[in-house]
Amino acid sequence: MKFGLFFLNFMNSKRSSDQVIEEMLDTAHYVDQLKFDTLAVYENHFSNNGVIGAPLTVAGFLLGMTKNAKVASLNHVITTHHPVRVAEEACLLDQMSEGRFVFGFSDCEKSADMRFFNRPTDSQFQLFSECHKIINDAFTTGYCNPNNDFYSFPKISVNPNAYTEGGPAQFVNATSKEVVEWAAKLGLPLVFKWDDSNAQRKEYAGLYHEVAQAHGVDVSQVRHKLTLLVNQNVDGEAARAEARLYLEEFVRESYPNTEFEQKMAELLSENAIGTYEESTQAARVAIEYCGAADLLMSFESMEDKAQQRAVIDVVNANIVKYHS
C-alpha cells in the first residue's frame, strides 16, 4: 500500500484563504522529506469548502517546491474545462516534473457549477466522456481530432507531448454509478471519496469489478485510492468535536437534503477520527470495504499544528516499518 496526503483547503471564519494556502505549502514541504508517495489538491468553486479553483496551477507550484513526492490534481473537473487546454497543461506538468504529475479528474458534482460555466446539464455524462477522450488522445498520441456533439475541430498537435509514455498516470473520482461503470470499461483506477459512506464505496467497488469482468477488462493491476480525513487525539471525543466543527459548513452545503446529524455521525465514524486505536480501526474497515490499494489522508481538521505533525510522523513511521 502507498500513502499520501490530499488537501481540501477549507476556509472558515478563523482561517483565511492566505492561511489555508500557507498551511498547505508548509505541510507539503514537510511531508516531501518523509516517505509519503503523493500530494493531491482538491478543486472547488464559489464556496468556503475549498479555496483552490485551479488545481493544475497549484500542482505546478508544488512540483516546483518538492523533489520526491508525486503531485496530483485530486478531482480536476474536466466537464467544466476545455479538454485541449486541460491536456496541454497536464502534459506540460508531466514534462516539467519528469513524470511526477498524476492526473486525477472528476465529473462535475454540482449542477450550479455546470450552469455557471454554461455547460449542458441534460447531457453532462456524455460531455464528460467526450472531454476525457480528447484528453486521453492527446496524452497517448500527441494529437486530437474530435467530431462529436460538443467538440469538432481539425486534427491538432498538443504540445508539449507527454513525458510519460501514454501520458501521466490517471485516476477518476467515483462520483456516480455511471462514472464507475465507464471507468471499469476503460480499466481506470477510482478514487473513493472521503464523504461517501463505507456502504457506498463497497457498492462502487463491486460494480466496478462486475462491469470490468463483463467486458473482459483485466483490472488485477489497477490501484484504487481511498481518501480519508484523519484527526487523532488521546481524547477521542475531542478529536470528534474538532472534526465536527471543521465539517459543519461542508455538510450543510453539500448534503442539504440529508438529515444533518445522520450524515455528520457517518463522517465521524467512517473516517479516521478518534483515538489512535479508533482511527486506525476505522481506516482498516474503510479499506476493506472498497479494496483500495492506496490511501490519501487529510490532516487539515487538526488545528494544533504540533499535534498534526506528530500524527503525520506516526503515520510515516508506520510506512517505514510496514510498507517500505
List the helices and strands and how they pair.
Blueprint: E1 2-7, H1 17-31, E2 38-41, H2 55-65, E3 70-77, H3 83-96, E4 101-106, H4 111-116, H5 124-141, E5 143-144, E6 156-157, E7 170-173, H6 177-186, E8 190-192, H7 198-214, E9 225-232, H8 236-254, H9 260-270, E10 272-274, H10 276-290, E11 294-298, H11 305-322
Helix pairs in contact: 3-5, 6-7, 7-10, 8-9
GO cellular component, one term: cytosol
Keywords: Flavoprotein, FMN, Luminescence, Monooxygenase, Oxidoreductase, Photoprotein
Enzyme class: oxidoreductase
3D structure, described in words:
With 324 residues, the chain is α/β, with parallel strands linked by helices. 48% of the residues lie in helices and 16% in strands. The protein contains eleven helices and eleven strands. The longest helix is centred in the C-terminal third of the chain and has 19 residues, at 236-254. The mean pLDDT is 97.
User: Reading side by side through the largest sheet, how are the strands ordered?
Assistant: 1-2-3-4-7-8-9-11
**Regions with little confidence, pLDDT below 50 for 5+ residues:** none
Distance linking N and C termini: 9 Å
Mean pLDDT: 97
Computed structural class: alpha/beta
Helix content: 40-55%
Q: Helix segment count?
A: 11
Task: Choose one word for the global shape.
Answer: globular
Beta-strand proportion: 15-25%
The helix/strand series, from N terminus to C terminus, equals EHEHEHEHHEEEHEHEHHEHEH
Any descriptors?
single chain, 324 residues, alpha/beta, two-stranded antiparallel ribbon, 11 helices, 48% helix, 16% strand
